[in-house]
Design brief:
The complex is a heterodimer of chains A (about 300) and B (about 425). By secondary structure, chain A is mostly helical. Chain A is about 70% helix and about 5% strand. Helix content of chain B is about 45%, strand content about 15%. In chain B, strands 1, 2, 3, 4, 5, 6, 7, 8, 9 and 10 form a ten-stranded mixed sheet that branches. Classes of the chains: A mainly alpha (about 300), B alpha/beta (about 425).
Chain lengths: ~300, ~425
């Protein structure tokens, strides 16, 4: 960290005043505390009390946690919703991120119209997930939607189905619509990472007679691991926090037979469609979800960091 | 030196910004009182943004009769209203009078002591039927917290032109009804625009098609007394009766949303829409040329009662905030809301059935709905009577009816789901 004698030091840690550091970090810290830390601590605190509407009643200890985990059908819905989040994460990793990588490689190899396609694939990014959800629910509507209409008019009647009303197709549709919206994200990150790989390495691989597939898997992909790590963690957090898109596609009940029910919806129902003690129970549920996502995200990050170092 | 001084300045600037951001704003909005003399402004909060103009007209009557009082209707988005109201009621700058949800959804406000009990304050409430007042009653203390404003009734709404075209009339028997459904289906018209994907509509449709099968108020009394439960044969049969009509729903009904069903009906692709009387105004707006009629479902063979039952429930009530600085004036206003003058203005302006006894709607269909309901009333069981604690029978019924109709559960399993959930908190009345 010390500057060598021949390199003029631009920044010297010791000379930057504490006031400066504070001046620049405090606004962010203040906002962060106000908007993130305070609600988090509040939820943690609220979760230990019984509530009568908006009035705090007696200390409940772990009563709310127990209630949330044991009450029928809420207690049974938590593992189901969690499982849906896991499937959603796995599906998104498998579809959104692999296709994103594929598109990035294609654009990297064929730079013609790269800008255009980059923009096209990233456009859905700009639309709110709620709007995306409503648009797709209109497109997939069995009564008026063009998707089934097209299928029927080309003779594929048996393919036409109530996409969002069938418990078997609802979750896959959710994964696809979500991927449709966010595919530009991993694509841009992979594209930037690909651009950062020195040409010499690829040329060396080509000189050694490696096929392009071999060169990709042995040379490029290992060097993309940092990007894979970042995308995995971001996808994990996104998939476990998902609410808006599922809400727009399937309502607060999580679609047909709860086939799209996820933790975010479960929290919404407990907090905003709950009873007298909604604040206590939803705070307890929120804390459990937070601990889960935070914990897994840290473990995931560590694991991926270790792989990066190893590769 | 310069660096340090600038740093300190930056720090101070940040702190000032932070303090400004945290300090309460100087003008806290209209607290409801103007403070001088007899001038009073009452804020009435509600969830009906589409009704602002009508309420202005209605409250004008009150303002004319009570000089010095100004009544303002302040609407919020319907799906955010409950949260906003819970917070607003705890504060003097909140509403003076508020539209309250009924039955179970009212209970959190009763528990937080945010409302003024009206038993001794509004004498006219004694004339309201007991079933109506159940919608505004605190379950824990039995006290009344609101003046009910609207009665909602549930029917099959039909397209008169389509009925005429196919030579159909409102059915008098269950078999007539099935024959009419079949005739329409054969002619390529979807008989019933049933909502499936938005599960909150399912208990409504179940009441419309199943009420006479389980027996309406008679069975409710047994449920409340604990001598019957949701797994009882009448209730299970009523679910089957409703689900049996699914062969007359739109193709791929599993994905039909509430909006889809409304569009199917208003566009003339479907001949009937099972739903609440509030749809009349919605349909008239979507397609003013649509000629509408209503009927109720005649009892199927083996039904518990032989009358054609007409389900109905209280949609909401007006209550007084315990934190209102103008409580007396607010109480005067809700007293007026229990009067025929208010009821008549309400039904005339909003095209809804007023909950005030004796008020007759000018609208023909509303009058028909009210008359039919008063003659053979039936409750909205899961919403009205088993929703005061968690999980509510209404949520459980929405889930289980959805599972049942999608093939994920049998009628017995679906009924068992409701019972298992409710039995965790429900105590039979002795």
């Amino acid at each position: 960290m010390t500057s060598g004698p021949r390199r003029p030091a631009r920044y010297r840690a010791g000379r930057t005043g504490l006031g400066w550091i504070a001046g620049f970090t405090l606004p962010a810290l203040l906002l962060y505390s106000l908007l993130i830390v305070v609600p988090l601590v509040t939820a943690f605190y609220y979760g230990f009390f019984h509530w009568e509407g908006t009035q705090r009643a007696g200390f409940a200890g772990l009563g709310n946690y127990q209630e949330v985990l044991t009450r029928y059908p809420l207690g049974d819905e938590i593992p189901v919703a969690l499982w849906h989040n896991v499937l959603f994460f796995v599906g998104t990793m498998a579809i959104q991120n692999t296709v994103g990588l594929g598109l990035a490689v294609l654009l990297y190899r064929n730079p013609r119209c790269k800008r255009f396609f980059q923009t096209v694939f990233s456009l859905p990014y700009l639309i709110s997930p709620l709007i995306v959800g409503y648009l797709w629910s209109l497109l997939l509507s069995p009564s008026f939607g063009p998707v089934n209409y097209v299928l029927q008019s080309v003779g594929l009647d048996s393919w036409a189905r109530p996409w969002l009303g069938d418990p078997d197709t609802a979750l896959p549709v959710l994964i696809l619509v979500n991927a449709w919206q966010w595919i530009g994200g991993p694509m841009l990150i992979f594209l930037a990472a690909l651009g950062g790989i020195p040409r010499e390495l690829e040329e060396a691989a080509a000189l050694d007679g490696a096929s392009s597939a071999r060169a990709f898997w042995s040379v490029r992909f290992p060097l993309l691991m940092p990007a894979v790590g970042v995308i995995t963690v971001l996808t994990f957090i996104g998939c476990f926090n998902i609410f808006d898109l599922v809400y727009a596609l399937g309502g607060s009940d999580g679609g047909p037979g709860g086939a799209m029910d996820v933790l975010g919806l479960l929290y919404y129902r407990t907090a905003f469609e709950g009873g007298t003690n909604a604040i206590g129970e939803s705070s307890a549920l929120a804390m459990m979800i937070f601990v889960l996502i935070f914990g897994v995200a840290i473990v995931l990050e560590r694991l991926l960091r270790r792989r990066e170092v190893a590769s | 030196m310069i660096g340090r001084r600038s740093g300190v300045l930056a720090l101070l600037g940040t702190l000032t910004l932070g303090l400004v951001a945290c300090s309460p704003s100087a003008s806290e909005g209209d607290s409801g009182t103007s403070g001088d003399g007899d001038e009073v402004t009452l804020e009435v909060w509600g969830w009906r943004q589409e009704d602002v103009a009508a309420y202005e007209k209605i409250f004008q009557l009150y303002e004319d009769a009570n000089p010095g009082v100004t009544v303002e209707y302040v609407p919020y988005k319907a799906d955010e209203y409950d949260t906003i109201l819970r917070t607003g009621l705890g504060d003097a700058s909140g509403p003076d009078v508020a539209q309250l949800r009924s039955y179970g959804l009212l209970q959190p406000l009763v528990a937080s002591e945010s409302l003024v009990p009206l038993d001794d304050e509004v004498e006219a409430l004694a004339d309201f039927p007991d079933e109506l007042m159940d919608g505004a009653r605190g379950v824990a203390d039995g006290q009344l917290y609101g003046v009910p404003f609207a009665l909602q009734t549930l029917h099959v709404i039909y397209n008169k032109a389509l009925f005429d075209e196919h030579g159909l009339t409102p059915p008098q028997t269950w078999d007539d009804m099935i024959a009419a459904f079949t005739a329409l289906k054969t002619a390529g018209v979807t008989p019933l625009a049933a909502t499936v994907a938005d599960t909150w509509m399912l208990p409504i449709q179940h009441e419309i098609f199943g009420a006479s099968t389980y027996g309406g108020y008679d069975y409710l009394d047994q449920l409340l007394a604990g001598t019957a439960d949701f797994t009882g044969q009448p209730w299970v049969d009523s679910m089957t009766a409703w689900q049996g009509t699914s062969e007359f729903w739109a193709p791929q009904f599993q994905g039909v949303t509430y909006a889809d069903a409304q569009a199917l009906f208003t566009s003339g692709q479907a001949a009937m829409f099972p739903g609440g009387i509030w749809e009349l105004a919605v349909f008239a707006q979507a397609n003013p040329d649509l000629e509408l009629g209503i009927f109720n479902v005649p009892p199927p063979p083996g039904a518990a009662v032989q009358e054609t039952l007409v389900p109905g429930y209280v949609d909401g009530s007006f209550g007084v905030s315990a934190a209102s600085p103008d409580q007396e004036a607010a109480l005067d206003l809700v007293r007026w809301m229990a009067s025929e003058e208010f009821g008549q203005a309400f039904t005339d302006e909003l095209r809804q059935i007023s909950a005030v006894p004796g008020v007759e709607p000018a609208d023909e269909l509303l009058a028909q709905a009210l008359e039919a309901h008063l003659a053979n009333p039936s409750p909205y069981v899961t919403y009205a009577y088993f929703s005061s604690d968690q999980p509510t029978a209404w949520d459980l019924a929405s889930e289980s009816l959805s599972d049942f109709v999608l093939g994920g559960a049998t009628a017995e399993e679906a009924a068992g789901h409701i019972q298992q959930g409710v039995s965790q908190w429900f105590e039979p009345q002795s």
